[in-house]
Design a protein that fits this description.
By secondary structure, the protein is an alpha/beta fold. It has 15 helices and 20 strands. The chain is globular. The chain binds nicotinamide-adenine-dinucleotide (NAD).
Length: 485
């Protein structure tokens, strides 16, 4: 692959400092080429371009902005197969997943907010016979968007689309670990003649580019998705600058299975919610809580299912488990499993690097799907996000205990509940600390509904109107009745 440059003012440019990072292919460990190691100077150039483009982009109106976003969606859709291949190479995820989930969802994000761009969000309120209030929603300005590596183009477009739809211009930073499809998105925007300066993409490390975006005095809003510790650091820097912040952070989500559930359905979905994308989805149900009467059945089915998952070259259509994103991340996961053993956990399957891999993948960062039982709920294994193909299974006796265990972490992103009882489902949904509770399903997403977490899983909500509100400022104009004509 070519060098991955920044996209500033519609042009592909080298980083000012001339520095580059190596971009590695997770499935092989081989170099894919270089990515710009930008810093505050590049962020400044990107901001200037965005600032210059801002007034025209706002003035062109929602209908026109929507047309541009649909054209970008068309371009991504036309390039779907190639983007899916690139995502798989860059991230290590199975190409079947990037072809059916990641890239189609990027298209859907762009189209959803393209349509939302056109809607009138102003509101009018009469105050008795005294006054009329009109609430306008204006774009915030130049916004900073920072995204992670697990769903690269999917989450990058999830931020870019509403920001642009609302009339902002953008300085966006993809993860330095997965910069390829974001670069391609910038190229596609340029190829279709997207107005220069509206979408600027700056590559590099979080400590350099990310912090420069967060610190920049001309960027009044930051939308961030990533780890909780990074979110805390960003919040501490942004707060004294009074920036708007949306933080989508980590999770340690409970997947609660009751004895009255349709167990076949629960287990088929639980296999996905445990190991999809090698467990590297913030919504994965990494803590499986099972009613004691069906505990052994569930564990057996999970272990059997995990053993059947085909681990292999992400570019092979048959592969179900690809590589982890980096050697560091693979090592971190391995050390979490060692720690679980020290906590008294029993590793029922996985817990090691696979011994047989295709020749091309011998140097890649693979890890077997792993099921652990017997770890305490207050131990590190059940408290800290592992973000890999590792789940714990813990028995419970009754509803009360299930709720207590489900809420027994600092996180609160999502939960799944498996039961045939509508009343129980509703009681549990009420009692669980989470932004989303799925009943008898997982990862069903309607782009209109709010998405986000409570406790250490985040601040604010994305999706639908919530995103359009985040990327706009309300301004109330109150006119005394009968004073103007
Ligand atoms: P990360 O926090 O390491 O990095 C995320 C992004 O922030 C990257 O682009 C990185 O370069 C940048 N960054 C790092 N340090 C920064 C700093 N000091 N200032 C500004 N930017 C900085 O996270 P990651 O490892 O890329 O992603 C995995 C994490 O993301 C997991 O915790 C996962 O749960 C979370 N995640 C959350 C959601 C959600 O919607 N809640 C979705 C996906 C991933």
């Amino acid at each position: 692959m070519n060098d991955l440059r920044n996209m500033i003012n519609g042009e592909s440019v080298d980083p000012v400092n001339g520095r580059w990072l190596d971009n590695l292919e997770p499935a092989t460990g081989a170099s894919l080429g270089r990515v710009a190691a930008s810093d505050a100077d590049d962020v400044e150039l990107a901001w200037r371009a965005a600032e210059n483009a801002r007034a025209d982009w706002d003035a062109c109106g929602g209908t026109q902005r929507g047309r541009w976003l649909h054209r970008l969606a068309d371009a991504v859709e036309a390039d779907l197969e190639e983007l899916a291949r690139l995502e798989s190479i860059d991230n290590g995820k199975p190409v079947s997943l990037s072809r059916t989930v990641d890239i189609p969802r990027a298209v859907a994000n762009l189209r959803f907010f393209a349509d939302a761009a056109d809607e009138d969000r102003s509101r009018r309120y009469r105050t008795g016979s005294e006054a009329t209030n009109v609430v306008h929603r204006d774009p915030v300005g130049v916004v900073g968007l920072i995204s992670p590596w697990n769903l690269p183009l999917y989450l990058f477009t999830w931020k870019i689309a509403p920001a642009l739809a609302a009339g902002n211009t953008v300085v966006a930073k993809p993860s330095e670990l997965t910069p390829v499809t974001a670069t391609r998105l910038g190229e596609l925007a340029s190829e279709i003649g997207f107005p220069p300066g509206v979408l600027n993409i700056v590559h590099g490390l979080g400590s350099e580019v990310g912090e420069a975006i967060v610190d920049h005095p001309g960027i009044p809003a930051i939308s961030f998705t990533g780890g909780t510790a990074t979110g805390a650091r960003i919040a501490s820097r942004a707060a004294p600058r009074f920036k708007k912040l949306s933080l989508e952070l980590g999770g340690k989500n409970p997947n609660i299975i009751f004895e009255d559930a349709d167990l076949d359905r629960a287990m088929a979905t639980s296999l996905r919610s445990s190991f999809a994308n090698q467990g590297q989805i913030c919504l994965c149900g990494s803590r499986i809580l099972v009613q004691r009467s069906v505990h052994d059945r569930v564990v057996d089915a999970l272990v059997e299912g995990a053993g059947r998952l085909r681990i292999g070259d992400p570019l092979d259509d048959e592969t179900q488990q690809g590589a982890l994103v980096s050697a560091d991340h693979r090592d971190k996961i391995a050390s979490c499993v060692d720690r679980a053993r020290e906590e008294g956990g029993e590793v029922l399957c996985g817990g090691r690097i696979p011994s047989s891999l295709p020749d091309r993948c011998r140097g890649g960062y693979f890890y077997e799907p792993t099921v652990i039982t017997g770890v305490p709920m207050d131990g590190a294994t059940n408290q800290e996000e592992i973000f890999g193909p590792v789940v714990t299974v813990t028995p419970f006796d009754d509803e009360e205990e299930a709720i207590r265990l489900a809420n027994a972490t600092d996180y609160g992103l999502s939960a799944s509940v498996w039961t045939a009882s509508e009343e129980r489902a509703s009681r549990i949904a009420d009692a669980i600390d989470a932004g989303t509770v799925w009943i008898n399903c997982w990862l069903l997403r309607d782009l209109r509904v709010p998405f986000g977490g409570v406790k250490h899983s985040g601040v604010g909500r994305e999706g639908g109107e919530e995103a359009m509100h985040f990327f706009t400022e309300a301004k109330t104009v109150c006119t005394a009745e009968g004073t103007t004509s």
